[in-house]
Every structure is written in C-alpha cells, then in structure tokens.
Design goal:
3 domains, disordered N terminus, Aspartate Aminotransferase, domain 2, 12 strands, 5-stranded mixed sheet, 16 helices, Aspartate Aminotransferase, domain 1, homodimer, alpha/beta, PyrdxlP-dep_de-COase (chains A, B), PyrdxlP-dep_Trfase (chains A, B), Glutamate decarboxylase 1 (chains A, B), 40% helix, pyridoxal phosphate (chains A, B), pyridoxal phosphate binding (chains A, B)
C-alpha cells in the first residue's frame, strides 16, 4: 500500500467492516508517511480537539491534515489529466460505495475516519474548478477566493450588526459603493446589500418596486392593491416568475415579452404589452431587463427599455447576475450601456468574476429604500442606544435576520487582482467564447443555434451525428436531434472527461450551451470539448 | 522586530506609504522566519498562483501561510487571556487604521500585502468563538465545523442539481430525514430544505401554508384571496412579521398573541384571538409557535397550540430555530413535547448545535408540498431527460436558484460527535445557564428579569449599581436602570474583555441577556462575566 497514490486509495470496493477498518488504517499510514504529522488520528476523536484543555496541537494537526487533502485537491483540479467527475447514481452512493457511508451515527467516529470521509466527499463530488467544467455559469476555483472563504468561516460571524461584524460591514459598504460607481451611479445615490444568490437579489428588486409605489403594502398587504403586473423577457431568468409567486403577485402576472432571434427583448413588444395590460385594467409597475441571459448570453437594449420605463413610470430593474462582470472590462462594458438608468441591478460576482459561491449583490439607486421597506427595528438586535453610529447596523435592510458573510472573499480578490485583473479575466473568457465560435463555424459536424457573434461567453450549438447529416430539416430530424445532446451528456458524465449543459428553448430542440467563466480554461480545452462530443456522439 | 509577537505587528500607527511598506516587509520576515515557507510573497501576486502554469508550489505556499494565520487565530480564540474584540468606531477603521486600508485598488497588491490584510481583518473583527462571547445565539468555533466549511468552499459547488452536487444533495437528504425522525415524524412523512437562515426558513413555512390552503395563489397572486391573518406570540421572533410583509400579507395581519410572565404564548389568548379575527371577517390560516424564544428562551405549550390549530384547521409551524437543538438531549427534549404535531419546523443547527454559520433547516411534514409550491421547471437546469433519477435534482423545491452548500459541515460534525455528542454539548450549555441562574439568585447586586428556573440557556438580568440599590421601584428608578446596561456594554466593548447583549422588552427596561451555546464556556467565564459587569458598572 505504501507508495500507492493516495487519490486511488478508495477505489477498491470494500464491503465488510473489518476490511474497511484496514483500509482506514492504510489511509492513515499513507497520510502520516507523507506529511509526518505527529498524531495518530485513529485513536482520537473530536472531543480531543479545542476547546478541550491542551487541545491546541491536536487541533492544528487535524486541520493541517485536512488542509493537505484540500491542497492536493486544488492542485489536482487544475490538471487536465484528472477527471471532472467520477459519476455514481444516487442509489450507488447511498448503498455505501467502497465503505463511504452517508449514515449519521449515534457514537462519534475517529478523526481518522473523518479525514477519510473528507477525501471521499471530494472524490465523489464534481470538480467545478476543472478547466473542462463548462456546465454552469459559476466555475473555476479562485485561490484568493478560497483563501477568503477559509478566513470567513474561521471568523464565523454574522452580517446583522457592526457590533459583531465591524470589518465585514465596512467591506460590504466599500464593495457596494465601488459596484455602484462602476454601474454609473453618482456619489449621492446608491444602496444595496449582498444576498444569498441572484434569485433573492431579483426578489428584492420586485419587493422594493412594490413598496416604492405602494408603501402601505408593508403593513396592510396586497388585498388593498390593484392587480399588479410585471414584465420580463421570454429569455429572462425564471427567478422573476418565482419571486412574483412568492411575493403574492402570482406567476401569471409576469408578462413575458417577446425577444428577437438573438434572445434580446424587443422594446416595441414591451411597450405594446404595457399598453395592452393597462387597457385590461391591470397595473404595470416593474420591468426586468436582462444583461446576459442564462442560455443565449443576450443583452437586452437597456436604453430603449429605460425610455419606455420612464414614459410609463415603471421601476426598471436590470438582472446583470451573469452580465455584470463585463462592466469590469473596458472592452466589453459598452454592452451594458444604459444600466446606469436602472433603479436596481442584480450583479453576481460568483459568476463572471470568479468569486466562490455565493456572492450576489442587489444594488438599489434610491438610498434608504431598502431600510424603509424591510426594517422592523427588533430591539434585541438593533438597539438605538448603542455607543457607536448605529447606521452601520445594516441588518434591518434585509429580509434575513442572520446573514452569511459573502463579502470578504470578493474584497480580498479585488485587493489581489485590482479592478484591472477582473477586466483581464473577463476578456480572457470572452476570447475563449470567440475561439469556440470560430471553430464551430468551420466545422460541418456542428451547427450554431444562432449565427451572430457572441456578446457574452455563451455559445449554443448542436452536434449533428453522421446519421443525421443527410436528413432534411423537419419534425423527424428534430425528434432525433433532440435526443442527441442528452445521450452525449450521459456518456460524458459516465466518462467524466468534460462537462457541459444542454437544454431545449422554445422551438429549438435540445442543444449544448457552453459558457466560459473559468480563467483556467485554454484553447486546448475547447478543442478537446469538440473532439470529445464528436467521439461520444458519432454512433448516434 | 524579529521575535516580536506577530499578533502585535500591526499595532503601531503607520501613516505614510514607505513606513507601511517597511511594516509589510517586517511582517513578511516574521512570517518566513516562523514557518520557513519558501516563497517571498512580496514579489509575487495572484497571477502567479494556479491556474498559472507551474503555480502549484506557489499556491500551496500561499494557502499554507494563510492557514498558519488561521490556526494561530483558532488557538488564540480559545485563550481567555486574549480579547473578545478590539473595538474601533467605523470612522477609525475607514480612515485606514495602522495602514489597514479598505479601499479597492485598480492594480493588484502583492500576496504579502494580502496576507497582512487577512491578519488585520481578523485582528479588527470580533472573536465569536471566545469562551466569553455571550452576545448572540450563535457562538463558538467548532473545529470539525470549520474543517467542513473549508472543504465546502474548496468544493465550491451549488445545491440545485445532483449533476453538480451528488454527494451534498444526498447528505442533505440524510440530514433532513434524521432531523425529521428526531422531531418525531414517521418514515412516510417529512420533507424539507436547508435555507440561508432562520428567517428564510420561517418565510418558507408561511409561503407553504398559504399555498396549501390557496394553491391558486402561486399563479394568480393574492388579489383573489380573502384577508388572511397569522398568529404568533408577542415574544416570538420578528421574522414572522418580516416574512408576512415580504410575502404580501402585511405585517399588521400578524396578530400578536399575549404571553405569560415567562414569555410563553397563552393558549386561551390564541384561541380567543382566532375567534375574534374570524368574527371580523378575517381568515386565519397559520400559527407560529416558538420553541425557545429569542430573549427569554421560552417554550410555547406546543400540545395546547396543536389542539387549537386542529380545531380551527390552521397550519401549525414551530419556530425551533433556537430550541431545536434541545431535541438532541434526552434530558431536555421533553420541553418540545408536541413538536411532532407541527406541520412545519424551523431548526437552526448553527445556533444550539454549534455549527458554523449558516445552517438552518425548514422541515415540512407533507411530502411534495415544497416542490409543488415552488417548482417552475426551468429547462436549462431541470431537464427531465437526464440519465439519472431526477427526483434528486431538488433545487426546484427552493425559491433560490443557486444555493450554497450548508449541509456538509453539519454532516461532518454529526459523524465526528454522533447524536450523543450533540446531546452532551446541549446539556453542558444548559448546565452553564443553571449555574449563572444560581449565582444570580445569591447576589444582591443583580436582579433576575423572571424568577423561574431557565428552560433554555437564556438568562435575563439587571445589574443594579450601588447608587440605585436604595431607590424604590418606580419611574425614576426605571429611567436610571434603563441606562445602565448600554453604558456597561459600551465600556465592555471598549475594553474587549467579554461581550453580552441587552435589550428592553415590553415594560421591562434594558436588561442583559446571557445565552450559552459555546461548549468552550466554563464556570470561571460565568464568574468573570458577573465580576466584570460589576467592575464596569459600580460607579454608575
């Protein structure tokens, strides 16, 4: 066993308990030999760690061993020779694969077993930092971001008051101000808060818009309000409908505005939808424009939409969860022209800026509105007779009471990269997208879903297997093409070599969507992706 | 400088840039001498780390140095000689205290500066793991929990689909099943999800209750609904009102039910409030009972409330965010008798179970309701033609799209402690509360806010300075007593020796609330707390 690659330690199937113990013993031996940590983790448990008296050395030894596992994982993540994932079906993992048991015990396990559990958790997970992970808008593993998260969890505090989070509260203020100025708002406007994800940020925007026009809703509810309607494009994110449902407005009252072939909202369609709704006695109050749609990566024409919102006195929100990162690039920020006219903006640094999950901001132009809308002034938290400036107790701005510290990693990344560094990262991702677009244009075994040059890093395409290449367009070809992407994806997951998403959209049958947000990705990975798809799909 | 304690490195005030550079140089020297890491961090930046080619060693060196800082912090946290906090006012920190600048640069900083920034962030923060931090319901620094968070952020994935979170999705299922069975639900009932905090968990319960009785609200909104009203006790958490406001029901439609002197909801008051609301033409649909109120730590009589909910066909929610942990203790779980009759339960392991923030679960008795209430079936994420069992794509149960992995740390802690270990932790915290209660009863310079023995770990009390001891009860004494706690708290924060919260409540003027959730706290810390309060307040 000695000398065996540790990452393969868990690959043998071990079924009975004694064999499992042996395996753990061997793992532990391998661990000790590698780093010569002093502790024998097989005889100690969490009770021996701090706050146990004299637990310092044991605590350092245990956490150091965990860190060794994590550092190995981080280095392996960047190696193209490693798998993106080692897929197992739910029932396989639940059956206790190779001794990895998910069950929760009555009695403590040893720290040795805890370290084995940690290795197994990483082994059966998905390597979202791998240069060939193209499956989600969030990808990559930013080392500074990871450092930021490790510190955040060690500090283990809460964003509700300055009293327990002085530094993080100020970092949130600094970050929000910076993001507001990048959006283009003046120094005397701008407010905001970091939220648990883009959907909640979008939810805040609707909540604020409703409160702005109908402040009595906070205390009296919606019963006394007219029938409100919202507008969002048919390519926009489902969070607008989900929020409208949760907030009591009803998903049917989100009017889906038509898009052009490229996925951009058609301003004339927006205006006619507004007029039609008003004629039906409904009350429009809110428009969501998208800067970077989820599937096509399209940018709605913000200035045209702002004009319409202005004419009809509607709250204009820009969902730039995905596209906001482009504001960091001198080369690409003009794609969001008009965003400065928005009343609120969602911007997720955990997407295009590569911050670890989760990191999403809702920016609000009108200062004070967030507080007014959400404050309840709970006296056990937000005492007004504290000895410091309690305007820094920002927790009553949020719906949440306790709020996770999502800002530190972003602040640290900003320090480490500078605004410039974020700009370069964004540029690189968009260059990758252009490269893929160029490759696809030259190949006859792939077809682009839309012909235009990409604006964001999304590239949508079909792989056409040999058996379909001679078929004429029509229902038969569509039916067969619809099955190609899921089947390739299934093989891809089993093989674990690369990961990319697919979906249908309106009349388009299942197609692949490739997105680039990981600075680790190189052109060779893009070449590999296309070759791998064609290898996996050539017999379909 | 060599040999100087590193934690004091930043205590000199350094104003000009060159002096600051010198200081960084010295910090770096100290760092290298201590651990002999190979890298000179003053000449490298984040660009030299992975994914840069050949960046493995630099990445390991940098993260190892950060870990050294964190390990020192963790060990220092447990030392009673260290301060709980090193307080500075917002303007002081914003002015760039001792060279610590919050500003976000255009150009990258060196990794050496990044490490200094990390040390400063910890230095000016609040040590929530300190045995003398009594300020919040969440406290302590669980080593296994921290390990879990470090791994979680390294895995950096998202809870929406099995595809990208196979292991974490299954861990969530296992944890929820376990918690449901501990609540007392049978194997064929029970559903749930982990949420960003207890307020959001409570919000889910109201959302679900509304959908259960009025499913059309999801698509059509509240306009077609009768005037709904909710019930919660006057001692319950403000999240019920906040959620009702956000969900469009209006905070005024949360009817606050009277409590007894101990802070428990009075069942007869609940029933008469329900009847009175019905007589006014309002439609009751939901009752929130609290198991462990925020200030008094009171447990509402759950069985009596369940009887009333049954009679009136109302959704019974139990907010056990704070009290849920007591279910882990054989000695204390009878305080939540009747919780098995709840239709939904909020339970925050980040409070009484000591898990790092955030970790909150909403448990729902009726299986499938969460999914029905929230699902929208976005095809880019929740494809139905995947090759695995897509019932494990649980992301459409939640309002959020992306969802942070909050489960791993709790799963790992459960492995490391066993159910038994959590039980012992809870018992210890409650023993601490009893000890404080006994001490307070014996002292004449303190007064208990309520006389009864504590049920949870909350102890509420006044400190009576010598100048007030001979004053008769009445408005004058109240006015003066009201100012005592804030003044002591202010001195306490400046000194940084201990931290405890205070608040007024109804007719009671400002009093201290001590809560125990940190297993590191010993009786000597409780003795210290009382002595310190009396030292800081004797001249008031």
């Amino acid at each position: 066993m000695t000398g065996k690659n540790k990452s393969n330690v868990t690959t043998e199937r071990i079924t009975d308990k004694s064999a499992r113990r042996d395996k753990q013993q061997e793992d532990s031996t391998a661990v000790r030999e590698r780093k010569q940590t002093p502790a024998d983790f097989s005889s100690i448990s969490s009770k021996d760690l701090l706050p146990a008296s004299g637990g310092e050395e044991m605590t350092k030894g245990f956490l150091q061993e965990l860190v060794n596992i994590l550092l190995d994982y981080i280095c392996k993540s960047s190696q193209r020779s490693s798998k993106v994932l080692d897929f197992h079906h739910p029932h396989q993992l639940k059956e206790g694969l190779e001794g990895f048991s998910l069950d929760l015990p009555e009695q403590p396990e040893t720290l040795e077993q805890i370290l084995v559990d940690c290795r197994d958790t990483l082994k059966y997970g998905v390597n979202t930092g791998h240069p060939r992970f193209f499956n989600q808008l969030s990808s990559g593993l930013d080392v500074i971001g990871v450092a930021g998260e490790w510190l955040t969890s060690t500090a283990n505090t809460n964003m509700f008051t300055y009293e327990v989070s002085p530094v993080f509260i100020l970092m949130e203020e600094v970050l929000l101000r910076k993001m507001q100025s990048i959006v283009g708002w003046s120094d005397d406007e701008g407010d905001g808060i970091f939220c648990p994800g883009g959907t909640i940020s979008n939810l805040y925007s609707i909540l604020l818009a409703r409160f702005y026009f109908f402040p009595e809703v906070k205390t009296r509810g919606m019963s006394h309000l007219p029938q409100l309607v919202l507008f969002s494009s048919e390519h926009s994110h489902y969070s607008v409908k989900k929020s409208a449902a949760a907030l009591g407005m009803g998903s049917d009252n989100v009017i889906m505005v038509k898009c052009d072939e490229r996925g951009k909202m058609i301003p004339a369609e927006l205006e006619s939808s507004i007029v039609a709704a008003e004629e039906r006695g409904l009350v429009p109050f809110y428009v969501n424009a998208t800067a970077g749609t989820t599937v096509y990566g399209a940018f709605d024409p913000l200035n045209d939409i702002a004009d319409i919102c202005h004419r009809h006195t509607l709250w204009m929100h820009v969902d730039a969860a995905w596209g906001g990162g482009l504001l960091m690039s001198h080369r690409h920020r003009m794609k969001l022209q008009g965003i400065e006219r928005a009343w609120s903006v969602t911007w997720n640094p955990h997407k295009m800026m590569g911050s670890p999950l989760q990191c999403s901001a809702i920016l609000v132009k009108k200062r004070g509105l967030l507080q007014e809308c959400n404050e309840l002034g709970a006296e056990y938290l937000f005492q007004t007779d504290k000895h410091y400036d309690v305007s820094y107790d920002t927790g009553d701005k949020s719906i949440q009471c306790g709020r996770h510290v999502d800002v530190f990693k972003l602040w640290l990344m900003w320090k480490a990269k500078g605004s410039e560094g974020f700009g370069s990262q964004v540029n690189k991702c968009l260059e990758n997208a252009e490269y893929l677009y160029d490759r696809l244009q030259r190949r006859t075994d792939f077809e682009l879903v839309f012909k235009n040059k990409p604006e964001h890093s999304n590239i949508c395409f079909w792989y056409i297997p040999p058996s379909l290449r001679s078929l004429p367009p029509g229902a038969d070809r569509d039916t067969r093409l619809h099955q190609v992407a899921p089947r390739i994806k299934s093989r891809m997951m089993e093989k674990g070599s690369v990961l990319i998403g697919y979906q249908p959209l309106a009349t388009k049958v299942n197609f692949f969507r490739c997105v680039f947000s990981n600075p680790a990705t190189q052109q060779e990975d893009i070449d590999f992706l296309l070759e791998e798809i064609s290898r996996l799909g050539s017999d379909l």
